[in-house]
Amino acid sequence: MPETTPTLADLAHEVRSKNAGPFWVTMELFLRDAAGYRIAADESFLDERVIARLYRVDAATVQIFRIPSLNVVKISFPRPISQGSLRDRDMHAGQHHVPLALLRVPAAGGGS
């Protein structure tokens, strides 16, 4: 059976998204250990441009907070559609984390 490339979810205890008010979404990666944190926090792998591509938002609006003492990466960006509006399909932002969790981790020694 071929070996598959791990995802961010494989490195994490939890990947979650949450409502951060009617106009923002916040996602958090709680990494299992410092090695996983180093991968997830590596700007050559996970940066504003990657989040912008995954979520179809402007990279200039993405905020990434790296917290090494907790092995946590926190990401915030404006909601594409304000909370509770007619086209809002995820009012509590509970499903926004899925594309991030499924992001494939690069092979050792290189970014994506």
SSE topology sketch:
Blueprint lengths: L7 H4 E8 L4 E8 L2 H8 L6 H8 L7 E5 L4 E7 L18 H5 L11
Protein name: DUF4387 domain-containing protein
Pfam family, one: DUF4387
Organism: Pseudonocardia humida
Could you characterize the architecture of this molecule?
The protein is an alpha+beta fold and 112 residues long. It has one domain (8-83, 90-101). Helix content is 22%, strand content 25%. A four-stranded antiparallel beta sheet has the order 1-2-4-3. Strand 1 and strand 2 (24-31) form a beta hairpin. The radius of gyration is 14 Å and the shape is elongated. It holds the Pfam family DUF4387. Residues 8-101 form the DUF4387 domain. It comes from Pseudonocardia humida.
- Written as H for each helix and E for each strand, in order along the chain, the element string is HEEHHEEH
Helix content: 10-25%
- Give the radius of gyration: 14 Å
**What proportion strand?**
25-35%
